[in-house]
Amino acid sequence: MEGNEKMASELLLPTEEYLKYGVHIGTKFKTAAMEPFIYKKRPDGLSVLNLEKINERIIIAAKFLANYEPEDILVCGRRESAWKPIAMFKKATGAKAMIGRYLPGILTNTNLKEFTEAKVVVVSDPWTDRNVVEDAVKVGIPIVALCDTNNVINKIDLVIPCNNKGKKSLALVFWLLAREYLKLRGKISKDEEFEYKTEDFISD
Asked: What pLDDT does residue 1 have?
């Protein structure tokens, strides 16, 4: 009982909040690389991600990102359900964002007018955002990726296991990353000072 209370106290949010946003619901397909993050398989065939590991990786990712100035962080997402969460992450932290289609070469080709410099890249899905991943690998930029049970992660430096398709789940993960990043950077001192609600990050 004492151990359970300790674990709960270390969660960024109460377990029921994580569950409400469906952050743990995976897909019917799972890759070997994502197996360590999977808690169980439901009767309907969907894999369920381990909430403790989701929480742990969000904390690790926020600490990693806190080493970078906001303008050195580039967040990308091609899937429409990620557009608003990423836009709000940009608004809250000052990070760069590339929403929608990413043109190959933006991180590597200085001749492109869209050329963008970054020191770390965050992608909402390493499959749909594979062009970003490929470019980041070419120039040696570390990649943080939100990964579902069906993702291949061999090119990813830091995995955040989560439902990376649902608009509520994406909103929650980016909201938590933004809040924790600002705390670690000393912009806010406690959770209550974060001016945005999770609902602000949910796509319409």
From this structure: 34
Q: pLDDT above 70 covers what percent of the chain?
A: 96
Question: CA 7, CA 35: separation in Å to the nearest integer?
Answer: 22
96 close to 90: Cβ distance less than 8 angstroms: yes
Mean pLDDT of the chain: 94
Extents of the domains making up the chain: 2-183
Distance, in Å, from the CA atom of 147 to the CA atom of 163, rounded to the nearest integer, reads 7
CA–CA distances in Å: residue 115 to residues 79, 98, 107, 109: 21, 12, 6, 6
Structure-block tokens of residue 109:
């080709």
Q: pTM for this one?
A: 0.93
Between the two ends of the chain, the Cα-to-Cα distance in Å is 40
For residue 135, the surrounding DSSP H or E stretch is: helix 130-139
The yes-or-no verdict on residue 5 having pLDDT over 80 is: no
- Cβ-contact 201, 172 below 8 angstroms: yes
Q: In CATH, what class is 2-183?
A: alpha beta
Write the CA distances from 54 to 10, 177, 193, integer angstroms: 12, 12, 23
